[in-house]
Write the structure tokens for this entry.
Amino acid sequence: MEYQVDITDLALAEAEKAYLWMMEQLSPENAEHWFDGLIDAIESLNKSPKKFSLALENEVFSE
């Protein structure tokens, strides 16, 4: 069974912000590697939605 994974505009904006920071502070290669890993992890959720646990700080932030 496959699930639909929706990425919010806020999540995309935060990922882009992190990517641009890594480009400047680390290297374009590190930023690209991180972003590719992020996309792979997100895409894997459509088959295994419980693959990753919630972040420890999840209870602190409201949705």
